[in-house]
Amino acid sequence: LSAELHRLRDGADAGALRELLRDSQPLDVLERYPAAWTGEEIVRALRPLPPRLYSISSSRAAVGDELHLTVAVVDYLRDGQRRRGAASSFLGGLSPDSAAPLRAYIEPNPRFRLPSDGDRDVIMIGPGTGVAPFRAFLQERREAGARGRNWLFFGARHLFSEFLYQTEWLEARRDGSLHRLDVAFSRDQPAKVYVQDRIREQGAELLRWLEGGAHLYVCGDAQRMAPDVHAALREVLVTHGGRSAEDAEAELAALAADRRYARDVY
Fold it and tell me: Is the dihedral of CA 182, 185, 189, 192 positive or negative?
């Protein structure tokens, strides 16, 4: 083994190992260290392919015996070679008349549920495919006749190519089932803008919703988005609520314990 791979394997450079595992597919590692493995070692090192979990982006009350998913196909170039995600590419390649079998199951998530009280307001923060469960939430609330208000924060890179379910959100704004919609498209202007920036901009109103009993949900990227959104929420409590940073953090923890601040991040 190379000296670099020895350091990674033996834990001498834990930060580099975490970065390698986060940003690399198995094929990337094999190509980076081509002489480090025998066929038997590769087989022993690999675990069985785990199931892929996707948020359901539809309510059965609205669509009947269907199940909608929102899937971004993993497809990128590295060192001139195209890489594809196994599950997302498979799903993206299915056609309506495809006979390919698909094994699926429901993975319950009891901590990421709508409030039982339909009069409660709901704040949903879901950039990219993280918006999936909130499409289901809005459908469910509409079908149930919930009287609570709904507020969606959505973010992506580009308005014209990545505004997922744009026509549905705009129709929901027109019919009154979506009361507020704040969007951020990070690459459509020189200065990048993200959902956490919109949260800060709307901080005073967001705090009024929370103090009125609103439930808060975050779904999407766990590495960067979720911590940045959490920091923005803490800043809202400090700036508009007069809390100290420590008290703001404790208040967010209390909201989470009370199931009024729920995150589904990956």
Answer: positive
